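During the second half of the funding period, the structural biology subgroup turned its attention to how the target accommodates small molecules. The most pressing case was adenosine-5'-triphosphate, which had performed well in the primary screen but for which no bound structure existed. We therefore specified the complex as follows and requested a full 3D prediction, including the ligand pose.
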Amino acid sequence: MTDTNIPVSVSDLSKVYKTRGGSVNAVCDISLQVKRGEFVTIMGASGSGKSTLLHLIAGLTTPTVGKIQINDNDIAKLSDAERTRFRCRHIGVIFQAFNLIPTLTAEENILLPILIDGTNHNRKEIREKLDSMLRLLEIYDRRYHRPDSLSGGEQQRVAIGRALLIDPAIILADEPTGNLDSTNSDNFCKLIRELCDKEQRTIVLVTHEKNVADWGDRCVTLKDGRIVDEQINNKNRKEVSA
Ligand SMILES: Nc1ncnc2c1ncn2[C@@H]1O[C@H](COP(=O)(O)OP(=O)(O)OP(=O)(O)O)[C@@H](O)[C@H]1O
Ligand SMILES: [Mg+2]
């Protein structure tokens, strides 16, 4: 993958869902560019199109109109299988509904992208990374639990581990702290901020919480599928790098 300064670039993006009751304009004419090492947060009322936008960027759904470029790749031009491999290698996705596989244990869920990305990994290295991720997220002693025997916050941390284990250049997170207590939420935000500042990872994070959005560099607000506000926030970048 080429090293571009604009890893996420969407232009004139719209998504219309057709339903039996009619159609829903979930995302309308959105253009957004996210620079390498930038941490963008997305806010907006329920139903404003935040998850749809994130799923479009992740290549999990296709736009009705518009273009999505991830590291200079037009993802619409990839086949479904290519897009899945591309995502597993380069994009860590934390879903609003976790999307854990119920029959797999916590650690198997975390390992999933590595198992399907088509790359030959060093087993020992992966095991060490997995163990330190489980410890970092404080779920080491839950690693053999299946999702239905984990709390909401623990499931969320498994979903975070799964997204981060591959060291993705791009992290897309949908309400990643929604089920975490304030300590875990702060720890997660700190970790994401560090990945951004020290390793130039690119983050797009959806949140309802102002204190979470305050960790970002820029906050984009959606209303009825459109960008209605954009605020730059330099505060935390300075604090973290100080
Ligand atoms: N698969 C779908 N089929 C039809 N309509 C959908 C589908 N997914 C979402 N929508 C509709 O699209 C709009 C945007 O939904 P989306 O999930 O993107 O909102 P959101 O901002 O993430 O909301 P929340 O904060 O509640 O998670 C909503 O009106 C929703 O009902
Ligand atoms: Mg949502």
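Two results from this model are relevant to the next phase. The domain at 35-59+79-241 is CATH 3.40.50.300 (Rossmann fold). Helices lie at 50-57, 80-90, 106-116, 123-136, 152-164, 182-199, 210-213, 235-241.
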